[in-house]
Amino acid sequence: MFKYRIPDILRFVYPKAVWRCSSHERCIYLTFDDGCVPEVTPKVLEILENERIKATFFCVGENVEKYPLLFEELRARGHQVGNHTYNHLKGIKVSFDDYLANVEKADRLIGSPLFRPPYGRITPVQMKALRDRYGYKIILWDLITNDFNKNLSPSEIMRNIKRYTRNGSIVVFHDSVKAAKNMLAVLPEAIKWWKEEGYEFRTL
After folding, report:
1. Which member of 33, 34, 107, 147 is catalytic?
2. Candidate list 79, 84, 88, 174, residue with the active-site label
3. Whole-prediction pTM value?
4. Whole-angstrom Cα distance, residue 71 to residue 63?
5. What are the pLDDT digits (tens) for 2-16?
């Protein structure tokens, strides 16, 4: 996993993926990976509702299948959704055909043109097929919070958010059980800081 910001060399390798938007505008794009799960996602929705913020949730198809009402609530509240494969697959570890079949299985449940590869790990051939054959917009990130890392404290995560946020950053949190403790502690503080710094929140 890349630490906070993906190296520029990989942005060059995958030039048609979206890493950052609106670099000349004071805005960020808040995203959440790995949901939706009843232990965590409703708490995120409550925070976003209170702050009047819309975000993009890259959902794992298996979770959507288990919790369809929660997935529908995401959309009913005006948030965007994206495909994060059916089983949270690491593209470089599975065959071309198996990966695409897994994405298709998730798409039957999620139905979004947005795709984010789990771990950010995907081969150029897989990416090209998803983009050209299936019409996906491949979304990566400019800043990953590493909220899932139990060796990091909320204060360390917040410090790195302040260090790496910039105009147009696509920011990744995780609405997963693994990340919940850090994410739920950091998210309200990060939103407060972004607002104080004059950032506008947008969806992809």
Report:
1. 33
2. 174
3. 0.94
4. 9
5. 567 766 666 766 778
